[in-house]
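Render NAD(+) kinase in 3D.
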Amino acid sequence: FPVWSPSSVCSAMYATAVTGANAADEPAFRPQKALVLTKFSRYEFEKRRHAHLTEEQLVKDLEARGSDYNSLVHHHKIHTKNRELVVNTLRENGIETRLVDRFDYTDSNIDWADVIITTGGDGTFLMAASKIHSRDKPVIGINSDPSRSIGYLCLPGHYTENFPVALQRLLTGKFQWMWRQRLRVTLKGEHAFDAPVELHDQQLQYPEYRFLDCWQEQHRKPQDEACPPGHASHLLPVRSLNEVFVGESLSSRVSYYELSIDGSPRVKLKSSGLTVCSGTGSTSWSFNINKVTPQCVQRILDIVSSETGVDIPERGTQLIGSG
C-alpha cells in the first residue's frame, strides 16, 4: 500500500492572467505557440460513450435517462462556437495554435507550447495546471459557456465572446499575472510505482483486514522514516492546484492510516479520508467540507441558551452571519 507523506508535499508555482481595469501593466506577452485544451461537452461525451448508437437512438437513450437532448446540443454549440473563436483569433494574430482534448494533452504538446489556453470551465483549467511541470508556463482560462458556470479560475465571462479584446490586452501588456501555489505528492513503499487505476475500474479485491493490521502494527522508530531497502520513492508526475485527497477508492470504505506532520510522532487515525488543500482550493471542496451551516449555528446557540439559562440576544441571522 503506497504511503503518502504530508512532509513530501511541496509547492510549485505557475501563472494565470488577470485582465481588467485594476490590472497593472506587464511586459508585452508575445507567445509564438499556443496549446488550446478543450473540454468534452456533455453531448460529445455521450456520442463518444455510445458510438454504436445512431442519432435517433441516442435521443431515446438520453430521454430514458431523464436528459434533455436539445439542451445538450444547444450548450454544445455554444461551447464549440466560443472554442473556435479562441483558436481562430490566435491564428489570425500569427500565433501557431494546436487544439487538443484531454487524451492528447501530453507532455510533448505541453513542452511545445509557450502558453496553455483552456476552453471549458474550472475543471478544464485544473486539468491543464496539473500536468505542467515548469513554473514559467502560464495558463489562461476561457469559460466557454458562462451561462452554465461562473468559472472562478477563468477570465471574466464577458471575455468569452470578446476574446479578441482579451488577447489584445495580453499582447499589449494590459494585464497582471496571478501566481498560484500547487501541491506535489511523493509515494513511498513497495507499490509506489504501481500503475494508477481509474475509480470506475476498481473492484473489491481484498478482505477487510486493514483495521486489524493497522491496530497491531507498531509505530516506526524515527530512523525508520526513510524508505527501507527495496522500497521505492515516486514523485507523482502531476501537480494539484486545488487539493489532494487521500482515502479509499471506494467511498463506502473507512480509511485507517497513520499521520505524521513535519516529522512529528505518527498518530493512528480513522476517518473517511484526508484532504490537503492549497490556497486556491481553500474556497472549493475543502471549504464545503468544513463549513458550518446557519442552521447548525442557530441550533448550537439554542442549546447554549437552554442549558445555561442565559438569554442570548439577537440569536437570528445577524448574529450568525457575523460569525
